[in-house]
């Protein structure tokens, strides 16, 4: 099995538990506070991982690659908004309906990446993305 596929599957399993644990964890908390707590825990964990891997030797390169940093800032803001909106939706919605709609990000990512990166997609890929979109609508409206 390809290494990227193993890590992608691990990401999917991890993301699933993020949604499940968040639904349980926001029971008595506001979505904003829950998002903040999760972000702080995530930051501490990731700094520890980067430190243990020796990644901080690249800090000086942040100054050299300002465009990369600007896009990472944008990604951080979009990620925080995604978590916040997900938590708001989970607070009042059913997890089994909220999660598939959140995963519409897959469809949006494919469409935007085709436009921006000029990536090629096969007919099987197109059919798969369309089925994801249709499946999301069926689950959300069930």
Automatic annotation (TrEMBL):
The keyword Transmembrane helix applies. The chain crosses the membrane at residues 31-49, 69-90, 96-117, 124-141. The keyword Transmembrane helix applies. It comes from the Bacteria. It holds the Pfam family EamA. Residues 4-140 form the EamA domain. Keywords: Membrane, Transmembrane, Transmembrane helix. Belongs to the EamA transporter family. This is Membrane protein.
């Amino acid at each position: 099995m390809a290494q990227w596929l193993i890590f992608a599957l691990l990401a999917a399993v991890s993301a699933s538990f993020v949604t499940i644990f968040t639904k349980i964890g926001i029971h008595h908390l506001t979505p904003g506070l829950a998002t903040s707590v999760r972000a702080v825990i995530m930051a501490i964990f990731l700094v520890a991982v980067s430190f243990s891997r020796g990644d901080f030797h690249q800090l000086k390169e942040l100054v050299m690659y300002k465009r990369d940093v600007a896009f990472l800032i944008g990604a951080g803001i979009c990620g925080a908004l995604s978590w916040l909106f997900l938590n708001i939706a989970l607070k009042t919605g059913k997890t089994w309906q909220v999660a598939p709609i959140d995963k519409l990000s897959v469809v949006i990512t494919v469409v935007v990446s085709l436009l921006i990166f000029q990536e090629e997609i096969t007919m099987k890929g197109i059919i798969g993305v369309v089925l994801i979109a249709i499946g999301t609508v069926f689950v959300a409206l069930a």
